[in-house]
Every structure is written in C-alpha cells, then in structure tokens.
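Regression test case RT-17, inverse folding.

Input:
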C-alpha cells in the first residue's frame, strides 16, 4: 500500500472537503526547498504555517526523533517520561512560567487555558465570574470552544449553538475593552500579533491596559502565542517584546519544528487550581514529540538564531518594498520577525489567495492571512540566498498578477 500511486484528484475522492490544497503534491523537503511529484522545486516561505522553524529535515530534529524512536514512543498519562520533563524544565527556566501542560496542538493548548479560566472563576467565590473576553478577527483554534473565542464568525456560524459567555470587542481598542472587562470576567485571551487575522500587531499600550484591567478585576490574562512563539518574532516569545507578562501562555506550531506538540505554560498561582482529573490528553507530552521539541527549542533559543530572525525581517522588508515600488499593490508591509504580512491596497481587496496561487506557479510557497493579506512565515534560519530566490519568484507572480489586472481593465 505504501507504493500506491496517488494523484491530487485522490484528495477530492477520499478526503473530507475541509481543505482546498494546491494542485500539486509535495513529496520531500530539505532546508527551505521542497519538491513535488514532478520534481518541481519550490522555495518555502510558508513554513507549514509557522511550524517548520528549522525548515525541512534539519539534522537536529531528525537526530532527536530517530534516537527517541529506538527507545520509547508512547506510554500514556499514567506514567511520565524523561523527554517531557526535560522540555518542561526548558520552558520554565526560559519564561515567566512555573508549570507546563503538554498537548498536541495550539487549539488544545487554548482549550486547556480557557477551561482553566472557567475553573479560576468558579473558585473565586463570585457566582457569575465566568465571562471570557476575546477580540474580533482573532483566531484561537477549531474546537467548538476555541472557534467561538476566535472573533471570526465565518469559522463558527455554521456550528451553533455555540458555547456561551464569550464576548468579543475590538482589537487594539482599549476603551472598548474597559467597557466589557468587569468583575464577571474570568479571562481575557489575546494574540500579541493577530496571525490569521491579518498579521496585525497589538499596540503596547493596549496590552499594558489589558494587564491592568485583568489585575483590577481578578481575571486571567492569556496570551495566545501559538503562531508568535519559539523565536518567530525575534524573541523567544512575543510577550518578551512588550513588557507585559501574561498569567497563561499557549504555544505550539514551531515548538516541535514540524512534529505535532502544544503546551500551556502558567504561573503557580493558577496552575494549582487544576486538580488531578480536571483535564487530560492521551498523546500530550509523548516522548517522541518532546524529544524533538527539546532539540528544536534548544537550537532556537540562542542569540545567533534569534538575532538572525531580526536580520532576516529587515532583509525581507527591504526586498518587498523594492518589489512593491515596481507594482504598487500593497498598502503596507507589517509584522515582526519572520511573521510578515503584505497588506493589499483597497482596490485589490480579496486577491490574496490569487496572488498565493500565482506564486505557487512560479515555485514559491506562501500563505494568506484573510482575503487581503499575503503572509510569509518561513524557516527562522532560511538562508539569505533562498530569500533572494523566493522574492524573485514572488516578483514574477506579481508581474503576472499586474498583467492580469491590465487585461481585465
């Protein structure tokens, strides 16, 4: 069966249609290069949606996985293991946190955080302290709880009735936040940079104001760093750029460098409100995932890698501005580190996916962040020559896009 010949049409035949993948099938990768079934080579600016922090088949990750694969794969949560404890120690020693809960994805990490917030409210002694404040255009995952917390109705409206007690207000609007955060609020969940919502950074004063409001009302401040964490912004975690420390932080994506893993990291004050049996997971914290994450995290958490992320951001922005001077399709280039959003001008609204498809034709993998933003989340160590080649292919895609616009005019 492993030798079965498959085609892109087979996706339509056999897979539940919740995705609309590209018309090619990728079969192998090395560094920031990937190849399809026809041996066409692509430069990877997508990074598995900010997951492949060290690119494809990095020796550090491969060695950690293969070594662990010969020792211990899975034992369930009735036992602990060495890799999970080593990874917990790394996270605790390098962040604000005292405790860690491991799971398999960002959605699961956010689910754990939001459930804990409700427990915090219950133990507060205030009967109605169960309201969660989130922000419009946010994204926190696809479980029913997390998709409701996300502020994008297009992802939740078909699955009503939705969990209650979640209120959305405008991102980066502190006055609106003050109007809804009160004694009934058990938690505020926010992304330091809205990723899926358009690569939109939070204002520092907005985050500081949320911290103060949570302190005043006894609410838990949750930072969703699923996309921004593990070096993506040039700091180990984005909160480190803000001067604001959350009570709970969720992390996933880059944490395993491509191997599925997620985590909720938390202070003792709130961690100890969870009791044995309150929450759990079968696969979370398994030795394979934690061994890989240990190696990836340790590799990234160095001045060389983190400073290199900022250098690559500057390099990307210079190149993108040069391309945009030629085609004039983007209103703004924004983001931090290697989470970059190219915001389309109003006259090109809704065309981000078209541009990404054209980039694919030119041999470049890219992403959208909503209908109006082209997003790049490449490897944190992508070579500068690969950035040059990728931008050259992006320029070719924009040339074709501009040509199509002229034909339609």
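Golden output:
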């Amino acid at each position: 069966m492993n030798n079965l010949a498959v085609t892109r049409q087979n996706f339509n035949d056999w897979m539940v249609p919740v995705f609309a993948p590209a018309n090619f099938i990728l079969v192998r990768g090395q560094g920031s290069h990937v190849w399809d079934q026809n041996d066409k080579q692509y430069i990877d600016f997508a990074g598995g949606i900010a997951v492949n922090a060290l690119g494809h088949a990095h020796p550090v990750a491969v060695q950690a996985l293969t070594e662990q694969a010969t020792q211990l794969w899975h034992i369930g949560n009735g036992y602990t293991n060495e890799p999970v404890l080593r990874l917990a120690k790394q996270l605790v020693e390098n962040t604000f946190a005292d405790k860690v809960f491991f799971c398999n994805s960002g959605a699961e990490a956010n689910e754990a955080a939001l459930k804990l917030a409700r427990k915090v409210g219950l133990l507060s002694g205030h009967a109605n302290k169960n309201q969660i404040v989130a922000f419009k255009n946010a994204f926190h995952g696809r479980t029913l709880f997390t998709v409701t917390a996300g502020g994008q109705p297009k992802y939740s409206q078909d699955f009503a009735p939705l969990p209650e007690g979640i209120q959305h207000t405008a991102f980066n609007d502190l006055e609106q936040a003050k109007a809804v955060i009160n004694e009934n609020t058990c938690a505020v969940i926010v992304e330091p940079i809205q990723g899926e919502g358009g690569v939109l950074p939070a204002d520092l004063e907005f985050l500081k104001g949320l911290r103060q409001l949570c302190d005043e009302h006894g609410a838990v401040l949750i930072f969703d760093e699923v996309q921004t964490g593990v070096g993506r912004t040039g700091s180990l975690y984005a909160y480190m750029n803000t001067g604001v420390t959350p009570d709970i932080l969720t992390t996933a994506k880059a944490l395993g460098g491509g191997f599925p893993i997620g985590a909720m990291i938390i202070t003792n004050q709130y961690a100890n409100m969870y009791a044995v049996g309150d929450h759990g997971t079968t696969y979370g914290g398994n030795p394979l995932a934690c061994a890989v994450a240990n190696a990836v995290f340790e590799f990234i958490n160095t001045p060389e890698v983190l400073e290199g992320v900022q250098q690559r951001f500057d390099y990307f922005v210079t190149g993108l501005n040069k391309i945009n001077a030629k085609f004039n399709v983007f209103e703004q280039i924004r983001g931090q580190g290697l989470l970059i959003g190219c915001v389309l001008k109003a006259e090109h609204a809704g065309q981000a996916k078209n541009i990404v498809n054209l980039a694919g034709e030119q041999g470049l993998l890219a992403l959208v962040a909503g209908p109006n933003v082209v997003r790049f989340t490449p490897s944190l160590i992508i070579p500068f020559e690969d950035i040059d080649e990728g931008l050259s292919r992006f320029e070719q895609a924009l040339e074709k896009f501009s040509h199509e616009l002229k034909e339609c005019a």
